[in-house]
Amino acid sequence: MAENKGRKILVAVDEGEESAYALSWCLNNFISPRNSKDTLILLFAKKPLAVYSAMDSTGYIFSSSIIASMERYGNEVADRVMEKAIRMCKEFSDEVKVETMVENGDPRDVICEVAERLMVDILVMGSHGYGLIKRAFLGSVSNHCAQNVTCPVLIVKKPKPGDAAAH
Amino acid sequence: MAENKGRKILVAVDEGEESAYALSWCLNNFISPRNSKDTLILLFAKKPLAVYSAMDSTGYIFSSSIIASMERYGNEVADRVMEKAIRMCKEFSDEVKVETMVENGDPRDVICEVAERLMVDILVMGSHGYGLIKRAFLGSVSNHCAQNVTCPVLIVKKPKPGDAAAH
């Protein structure tokens, strides 16, 4: 199998269940638990704080302590997501090579940019990654990435309970 | 690897180079050449003849012999595509289990319908499948399928010559 060449597999992770399922599916279907030369690159995109001139729509100026605590919250989410993702990889196999990346920016831009920059062999992602409302305006992250990256893209949906095709 | 359970891998094939590349990528990255329990299902969607009341826009009535020869041409394309796809699979490995399906209809509907009906583990397809003009109106086939099937979807783009990420 081509995996013996050592592929770079980029997995976009976020706090959603879809992304955890996508990682798990990728591990179980795409990676050899033993003697694999593949490298799994876990990528978390930290959405930028929308602090327009440090003021919210009600005109209150955010104090620097609020901004700092929002920053801190963003970092905590990143840490939590990464810890969980790494744990999933290690539970799958101790031997799997895992790298992590946390980048600031809109997930759609970050994921495409990293996929191209690292020249990965495949991009794996859940099918969502935004809430329903935001997706309606922006289109789904996976949709955007599938259209804009040059590498193969694997989009994994979490089966809903009762899905006929729930594997 | 989960492949040992015997996965059903649906690959949408058509006359384009994108689809041949997607099949080749799938074979090299997703299938074990030896002792695999996976089944590769090659699906070709035969686009319906747009014979509205057997009359074209100039008012000429298509003779039954023209309709028959168009039908024959469609079958020949299906045969040629399938032969090539099967040959690629056999060149990859003699042991790989291959099934073929030719279904009539719009590729977007056919691919989604078959993926659900057969409850496949993954759908693999090239990123195109329509010409540029038609795609602009209808959206790409892969885009439509990625949004509408419940199973994981792998979309493979053929790298253009000079692509930095051409693997």
From TrEMBL, chains A, B:
InterPro entries: Rossmann-like_a/b/a_fold, Universal_stress_UspA, UspA. Residues 7-157 form the UspA domain. It holds the Pfam family Usp. It comes from the Eukaryota. This is Universal stress protein PHOS34.
